[in-house]
């Protein structure tokens, strides 16, 4: 599949990327190369191949799932503009 300059311009616009006019042919060629590579990947037979989550089969270490209060209340409330009785204090919005 080949991308023309107008399509490259439209892709750049949709991606909110400012591309000077003189660089549009290069962008079109790069996008065409990417699509060609994707077409090559589609030709690979992956029937019966399990998806991989890692290159090496290993289980991640897991921590014990314990419910805690975090222990950071003082550090977090130190950044608050107004804190009272261990909570963030905010202006009243409903009368």
Notes on the protein architecture:
It is a single chain. By secondary structure, the chain is mainly alpha-helical. It is about 35% helix and about 5% strand. The chain has a domain of about 40 residues. The longest helix has 19 residues. It has a two-stranded antiparallel sheet. The radius of gyration is 27 Å and the shape is flat. The chain has three helices and two strands, in the order H-H-H-E-E. It is an enzyme of class 6 (ligase). Keywords: ATP-binding, Ligase, Nucleotide-binding, Protein biosynthesis, Transferase. Heterotrimer of A, B and C subunits. One of its GO terms (molecular function) is glutaminyl-tRNA synthase (glutamine-hydrolyzing) activity. This is Aspartyl/glutamyl-tRNA(Asn/Gln) amidotransferase subunit C.
Short description:
The radius of gyration is 27 Å and the shape is flat.
Q: Please compute the radius of gyration using only Cα atoms.
A: 27 Å
Strand order of the largest sheet: 1-2
Beta-strand content estimate: under 5%
Shape: flat
User: Which secondary-structure class do the elements indicate?
Assistant: mainly alpha
The count of β-strands is 2
Structure annotation, total helices: 3
